[in-house]
Specification:
By secondary structure, the protein is an alpha/beta fold. Helix content is 42%, strand content 23%. The longest helix is centred in the middle third of the chain and has 41 residues. Bound molecules: adenosine-5'-triphosphate and magnesium ion.
């Protein structure tokens, strides 16, 4: 899937914009604070229905405006056209449509136009707390499978209820062991049902990706150090064959943690507690990795994302590389561009870029405060 035309109305610092983009590579240049990241954020929003630097839709609304609209015209692998529109207004909330039909939820759009994003905020994936790596897995696997997203939404809903129950009756020294026992058991069953599906999918993904990730890391770091990644949870003993993580085994784990859960008043087992461990030659990246190592691993993970989506969905993702050159050194950013060329429609932003020779597949844009000028 590639985007051909982007239209913005009151989105971030753009009052109104219509932009025809190139099918292969798009370079977006301009000084700081002109709207380069905002433009990439609009493309991201058309794939995942939200921005990448905020969780609040209203942050995307141009200051002082009362509604925004982003729309994209796409062409799929078979040459058919598609349109996505995201409209937001305070009272109405967010409305999403695909090919002019209103979608009931954002889940119906996720995965239709797969996207890979690299931005200055992405460093959190390798350096931040476990929640960042879970988010990395969830966004990727949700794009790859609508069933994964549905299971995750259901799991989170059940988790909230179960946590509310635990917090209400236990934790903080209060203890009413008899009253909610039956209710807690009912939540256990549904938590286990969805939890084990998410665990299976995450373990399987990680195991299937180890080899590609290692090769990508060797390429980008120009070294033969051994990058390993592993999913870490209380189910590691069953990880060799993820199918053996069943609702039954999930329930058993819950049983083992029961006393601790009552003490803490929260759910302590399940995919919401796990981590993705990254090591280089058996040394933990997050605790001991150098800055360069973090950058190379992050880039390898981005390559893995593009590879996974292409394989899983049979359509190349849109690849957004925000501030690539200032985040990576010159060699690595060149290698990275070389790698992604031909693996998806590229959007690369930078304060300044060397002039590329003009080609019909490539466009260069100059951004001036909320306006875009085509360079060639
Ligand atoms: P840099 O090179 O520093 O990354 P950039 O070109 O990527 O700059 P953007 O992050 O796209 O810049 O932001 C451009 C401007 O948009 C900022 O000055 C910011 O204040 C402004 N901006 C952000 N959100 C909104 C909004 N909701 N309404 C109006 N302006 C906004
Ligand atoms: Mg920026």
């Amino acid at each position: 899937m590639i985007i051909r035309k982007l239209k913005l109305l009151n989105f971030r610092n753009y009052a109104q914009l219509e932009l025809m983009v190139a099918p292969a590579q798009n370079f977006i240049c301009g000084s700081n604070a002109r709207g380069k990241s905002n433009l990439l954020e609009a493309i991201y929003c058309l794939s995942l229905t939200r921005g990448f630097r905020t969780t609040a839709d209203q942050d995307l609304l141009k200051f002082g405006a009362d509604s925004f609209e982003v729309s994209g015209e796409y062409v799929d692998e078979r040459g058919a056209g598609h349109t996505v529109t995201i409209y937001f207004q305070h009272e109405l909330g967010k409305q999403i449509s695909l090919d002019r039909k209103r979608l009931q939820s954002h889940a119906a759009l996720v995965g239709k136009i797969p996207v890979v994003l690299f931005s200055p905020e992405s460093h959190r994936i390798t350096a931040g707390p476990p929640a960042e790596r879970r988010k990395f897995l969830d966004v990727l696997l949700s794009q790859g499978s609508s069933a994964y997203l549905a299971d995750l939404q259901e799991y989170n809903r059940i988790l909230r209820q179960r946590n509310a129950l635990l917090a209400q009756f236990y934790g903080n020294g209060s203890n009413f062991p008899d009253r909610p026992a039956g209710t807690l058991a009912a939540w256990d069953e549904s938590l286990a049902l969805y939890g084990c599906k998410i665990l299976q999918a995450r373990y399987r993904f990680v195991q299937d990706s180890v080899e590609f990730l290692q090769q990508a890391y060797e390429y980008i770091s120009a070294s033969s150090h051994f990058l390993q990644f592993a999913y870490r949870s209380p189910f590691d003993a069953l990880a060799r064959e993820p199918e053996t993580i069943t609702p039954q085994s999930f329930m058993e784990r819950l049983g083992e943690y029961r006393a601790r859960e009552k003490q803490r008043g929260q759910t302590l087992v399940g995919p919401h507690r796990d981590d993705l461990e990254l090591t280089i030659d058996d040394v933990d990246l997050r605790r001991f990795g150098s800055r360069g190592e973090h950058k190379s691993v992050l880039m390898a993970l981005k390559m893995l994302e593009a590879e996974y989506l292409k394989k899983k969905l049979d359509t190349a993702p849109i690849i957004l590389l925000d501030d690539l050159i200032s985040e990576l050194d010159e060699t690595r950013s060149r290698q990275c561009l070389e790698h992604f060329t031909g693996r998806g429609q590229l959007f690369v932003s930078a304060v300044s870029l060397k002039d590329e020779p003009p080609s019909p597949d490539t466009a260069k844009f100059q951004i001036e405060a909320g306006n875009v000028v085509m360079k060639h």
